[in-house]
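Question: Send over one sample?
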Amino acid sequence: MAQKPSIPKGTRDFSPIEMAKRNYIFNTIKDVFGLYGFQQIETPAMENLSTLMGKYGEEGDKLLFKILNSGDYLKDAPAELMEQRDSLHLTNKISEKGLRYDLTVPFARFVVQHRNDLSMPFKRYQVQPVWRADRPQRGRYREFYQCDADIVGSDSLFNEIELVSMIDEVFKRFGVNIAIKLNNRKILSGVAEIIGAPDKIVDITVAIDKMDKIGIDNVNAELREKGLGDDAVAALQPLLTLTGTNEEKMEVLRQLLSSSEEGMKGIEEMQFVLDGVAALGLKSIVELDVSLARGLNYYTGTILEVKALDVEMGSITGGGRYDNLTGVFGMPGLSGVGISFGADRIFDVLNTLDLYPADTTASARVLFINFGNREAVESLKRIKELRASGISAELYPDAAKMKKQMAYANDRKVPFVAIIGENEIANNTVTLKDMATGEQQSLTTAQLIEALR
């Protein structure tokens, strides 16, 4: 017996129903991107490894999927590297390209390569798959889509306010209750400075970023393991136990960071963003979270993350402000701010909460029953008119039993069935049946079009 085929771990097939749901997600996000004036670009699935390597840190480099050179990929591989099993140096000899790890580095390459054709500030969005050789788990896949939006060539904090507003609009349309968590890299730098450990900022933030998962005692233990003294750990406690409203948190931070110029600059930026967001009266909870430290090696100002409130799931959107997107490609100093919607996690959230509109998975608005060749031809004439009016319609291809055709309509979740038999042909009408209520009505083609709209 032949072995049943399978797909690589961390990847998924999507059925027509699942694709309808995913397209609902992508189309909703794209509609909002367009509403806010973002323009779409696409970049190749594969990039030169020289473009990708060294941009994600040592661990990130290990998670890159490399593509073997075409033909005899071992022809330039030194024998000694093969014998030593030196995969690190051997990779450069047998692979020149890799699958993109995210959309940010390809975007940076795009901006530098096409800089003479772009008007600044440049507002771009990109919805494409990325690949990571990560350990698969719930909500984490080796192939997944990112939906990114960035504004580059502008330092204005109004951009951050616009992105928070855009996030709110997307999840309002989805019907998902969310908390948008905000922080600022400068605040974290100020904290490291005032406790006397500015060189430990990454260690500090990596530890406090785990607060929700491991608790304050384990965070303190990890900080000590990283070389922080008891005085520094004690000085951090007001930060780790920060509660209250955004204004109450800001007041504590002002007192805590009053001696740090960098920290106070971060507070000033955070206050501007919080005030701007508050003025818009968004539906979502917007919360200052000083434990938020995602992408600290990359972000230089605002940091944001989105959590779904009604389902256990990791971050479903994230992003922040960066000051040197294109520096690694010889174009320093280009500031920007961006966000990335985790489409696959949003898919899981909407599935868990069953928040898709009722007609999302319908393949057609109406199915015409096939009673034979003559009736089928008459049906196709009506179908042509429906499609010309933007209404999706299809004809069951075979003159099968009525029960089978109706079952097909039910399985496909088609909301209406149209019947053209001898009487309908004689009267130049169509009988329309509502599959939900069972109600039937006899209509002209013009009335049919209006009813289905």
